[in-house]
Write a sequence for this structure.
């Protein structure tokens, strides 16, 4: 009986121990869960980046390294005379340097080269020259007729000076010494030989200049059509082989942690029926970082090909560039040339440093079609009645 009496208080104590200790254990477990769960939640949800890619434009450009040697095409040699105009507009352009870099092992000059843009500029100069030549030839012919009417007795210094002014920019002037002219004018009969020579030089200069201008006019009339055909062919060839693509994008990060885009990125051109072409692109230069409030800050300068960095809750523009089309397999080159500008679409795929792969919006594989799509949307909104009301 004594043992039974002594065991009665044990049950309440056991219940109290169990309740108190379970409360403590539950509090400890809750603390552990909160302590471990918050960093995990912050790391995988609150402080993770959330990347979005929007393509804003696509362009196809010809590589600046693609050059044409004028000496390689007979029809282009007529453009060489306009080289000085390129040099005057581009002080750093020196044809001597071009010739030196293109010299062979023997040191012989192999030709002067220009980019396709420069070639088109030279063609423009030639067309402008052709348009002005008739008027210039007419003026030279009128002055030539004036020289035939000159005589030692009537020729004056102002008249000689005016006729000489036309040759101030040419290589064959008919110079006259002012002091010598005045000295010989004191006795024109005695010094008739001086004035005969002077008049003869003027006539020869105008004959030569007029002959050269008329010859150039005929040459340009004949050569410009063939030059245009050659430039058109070269442009087509360069576009097929020496062109590359640039894709302009806006990279938006709505997450709480910064991120970077890994290189390379992929532009897939969907041709249809399971057919596609992949272009590998790399970041081309650095863009402008934009904060959520719209203020900007310069992004870190990066070398071409490095990752594009996007800060937390930030936005930046980035341009991605492909290699030249000639580096693609032959079949892909043909597909790219055939479908550029057609009604097919392309999507850009990028991967950030956390391994997240993001697909961009879909755009037409055509600079013109994409711009037309935007323009049509703008026209639709601009045509709404509320925008036409006067204030």
């Amino acid at each position: 009986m004594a043992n039974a009496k002594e065991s009665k208080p044990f049950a309440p104590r056991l219940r109290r121990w169990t309740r108190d200790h379970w409360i403590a254990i539950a509090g400890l477990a809750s603390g552990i869960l909160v302590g471990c769960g918050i960093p995990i939640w912050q790391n995988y949800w609150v402080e993770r980046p959330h990347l979005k890619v929007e393509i804003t434009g696509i362009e196809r450009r010809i590589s600046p390294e693609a050059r044409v040697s004028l000496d390689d095409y007979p029809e282009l040699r007529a453009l060489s005379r306009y080289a000085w105009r390129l040099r005057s507009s581009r002080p750093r352009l020196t044809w001597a340097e071009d010739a030196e870099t293109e010299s062979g092992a023997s040191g012989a000059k192999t030709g002067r080269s220009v980019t396709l843009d420069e070639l088109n500029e030279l063609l423009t100069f030639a067309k402008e020259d052709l348009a002005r030549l008739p008027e210039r030839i007419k003026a030279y012919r009128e002055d030539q007729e004036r020289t035939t009417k000159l005589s030692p007795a009537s020729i004056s210094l102002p008249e000689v000076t005016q006729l000489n002014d036309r040759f101030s920019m040419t290589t064959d002037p008919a110079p006259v010494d002012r002091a010598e002219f005045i000295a010989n004018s004191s006795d024109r009969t005695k010094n008739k030989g001086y004035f005969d020579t002077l008049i003869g030089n003027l006539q020869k200069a105008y004959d030569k200049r007029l002959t050269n201008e008329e010859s150039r006019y005929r040459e340009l009339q004949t050569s410009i059509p063939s030059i245009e055909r050659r430039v058109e062919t070269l442009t087509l060839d360069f576009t097929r082989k020496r062109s590359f693509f640039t894709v302009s994008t806006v990279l938006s990060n709505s997450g709480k942690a910064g991120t970077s885009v890994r290189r390379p990125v992929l532009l897939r051109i969907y041709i249809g029926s399971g057919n596609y072409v992949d272009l590998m692109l790399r970041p081309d230069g650095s863009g402008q970082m934009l904060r959520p409030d719209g203020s900007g800050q310069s992004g870190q300068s990066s070398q071409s090909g490095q990752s594009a960095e996007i800060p937390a809750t930030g936005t930046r523009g980035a341009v991605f560039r492909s290699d030249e089309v000639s580096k693609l397999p032959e079949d892909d080159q043909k597909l790219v040339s055939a479908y550029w500008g057609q009604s097919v679409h392309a999507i850009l795929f990028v991967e950030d440093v956390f391994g997240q792969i993001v697909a961009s919006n879909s755009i037409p594989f055509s600079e013109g079609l994409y711009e037309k799509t935007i323009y049509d949307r703008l026209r639709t909104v601009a045509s709404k009645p509320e925008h036409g009301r006067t204030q």
